[in-house]
Amino acid sequence: MDWALLAESAVNGGLVGLMYSLVAMGIVLIYKSSSVPNLAQGAMTMLGAYVVLAFANNAKAPIWLAIILAIVTMFGVGMAIERVALRRLAGRPIIMILMMTLGLEILLRAGSMTIWGGTGRPMPIGISDDPLFLGPLLINRTYAVGAAVAVAMFALFVLFFRTRMGVVLRAISDDYTAAWSVGISVERGVALSWAMSAVVATIAGVLWASVQGVDQSLAQLLLKGVTVAVLGGLDSIGGALLAGILLGIVEGVAASFLDPLLGGASRDLVDAAMLILTIMVRPHGLFGRHDIERI
Amino acid sequence: MNANTPAKVLSLNNVEVVYDHVSLAIKGVSIDVPEGGMVALLGANGAGKSTTLKSISGLLIAERGEVRRGELQFLGRSIGALSPQERVRLGIAHVLEGRRVFEHLTPDENLIAASAVRGRHDTSRNKERVYSYFPRLHERRTVASGYLSGGEQQMLAIGRALMTQPKLLMLDEPSLGLAPFLVAEIFQIISRINKEEGLSVLLVEQNAVAALEIVSHGYLIESGRIVMHDTAETLKKNPDIREFYLGGAKAKSFHDIKHYSRRKRWLT
Predict the structure, then answer these.
(1) Residue A36 placed within a domain
(2) Which of B25, B24, B21, B1 is nearest to B13 (CA)?
(3) Which of A176, A184, A294 sits opposite B116 (nearest CB)?
(4) Parallel, antiparallel or unpaired: strands B77-78 and B65-74
(5) How far is A179 from chain B (nearest CA, A)?
(6) Residue of chain B nearest A178, judged by CA positions
(7) Residue B165 and residue A123: Cα distance in Å, rounded?
(8) Among A42, B115, B206, B249, which residue's CB has the most CB atoms within a 10 Å radius?
(9) How far is the alpha carbon of A235 from chain B, nearest alpha carbon, in Å?
(10) Cβ-based contacts of A291 with chain B (< 8 Å)
(11) Degrees (nearest 5) of the Cα angle B199, B202, B205?
């Protein structure tokens, strides 16, 4: 057993996992404030990255400004999705809304292909490729930055859900009709949750794009996001964080030891196993809320 | 209601509600609630009581229903076109059937969530007021509301409605599934709020016995139509009401039962 390799895979895996958490957090945000599982989160992550590039390359903005402009733009995109696609679905069965988010996913992916083409482009955010040395371990700098951002976003959202607005959003996710009955603007709450989620998606998109470039494959982060969100419990931000670390470590370790044997598919196998086992053994995830049944 | 009664808070005139464009749920309901008054809307399951309340609070949108005909006035203002949020802001509070508290929120958070239309400053004062009416909620303010008892949840649902500073409180079956002593306690608190704050109350009930004890007037609704309206005293004495809604005047022997042939008098 190569202990150094094991430790290195585990640490880098954990950091990558936190970057998965960023994608998962977007899913959790929407679920926690409107009980909708958003299947368009991966595509929104991809769109965020493209919008940053659009500002940086076409409008010649410096990259930091491009990111800020993209965040503002994506906030608007999130609001617009609620207004155009979701508002008329209020009161319909959840399966309709789920299918709508799937439709959005396809639309965003195909739309980006039409506008920007399918060629991968670099996302130069100025993080060096040189590894960090942590004792004998080599740590990827981008992963480290991504992980730090994920932890910061987590702290931000935990605080947010304690504010008045945060309590209102949680109330909406519990019961739309009851929320209406006490004068909560359910539509505006749902719009805000989509907007916040689009912002997180942009941040995740930038970080992931700096790892793997900008193209439609960024949308496949949905699979990681869903796995992490379900494992952590769909409405738990902290759960998304810990589940991300857990999945990342298992994935990283499995990849470095099993890939030579299985030929590169071990990460996806680990994902599939995690998702399926979670749903079979613990459908509420590690920290998800249980539906309260009084007896 | 005759012309020299006090000002009306709420007045429904010939309201008709349709679900999904086809199914007619109430067929021309007219109701008045006087300012500071307490009025009951009585009727059996499926008679249209809840639909009537939802037409007033605007919650029909959650069930794809709409008011197709008739006039809804609140404090002399037509409210038919307003969103539920605007109606709450005007002072209409609807306590839903089955309590519907935000189960994963604590009672304290339930009350905070319900003050979305009022200012931050009012929130703490309103919370004090709710806790003074329902001290038991204060004791349990940090538990997830889903774990409260049925009675406590009903108190929370009423308290939540009070957070919006209503002028009209509409209660949909507050006695549902509660022990008689709790029903008495909750009805007593409702009367107290009515008296102390001059809050008008529209009470929807199947439990006609309990309801007629605290209201001044009652309406009787059957298959979407108001079939009777009178003071609570008169309604209690009405032989048909006694038989169909107050559990019958006397015990019957199954030998001489002719119940099936007995028609309600107002159906002619």
Answers:
(1) yes
(2) B1
(3) A184
(4) antiparallel
(5) 8
(6) B100
(7) 53
(8) A42
(9) 11
(10) 103
(11) 135
Domain limits for position A223:
3-116+132-281
Locate the chain B residue with the closest alpha carbon to A174.
B102
Give the C-alpha separation, B157 to B174, whole Å.
Answer: 9
CB pairs A-B closer than 8 Å = 95
- pLDDT tens series, chain B, 268 aa: 444 556 899 999 999 999 988 888 999 999 999 999 999 999 888 889 999 999 999 999 888 889 999 999 999 999 999 999 999 999 999 999 999 999 999 999 999 999 989 888 899 999 999 999 999 999 999 999 999 999 999 999 999 999 999 999 999 999 998 999 999 999 999 999 999 999 999 999 988 888 999 999 999 999 999 999 999 999 988 888 887 777 655 555 556 555 555 666 776 6
CB contact (8 A) between residue A178 and residue B146: no
Q: Which residues of chain A have a CB within 8 Å of the CB of B161?
A: 181-182
- CATH code of B85's domain: 3.40.50.300
List, in sequence order, the alpha helices (H) in A213-236: 221-232
> Which residue shows structure tokens 């049944």?
A293
Asked if A285 and A243 touch (Cβ cutoff 8 Å), the reply is: yes
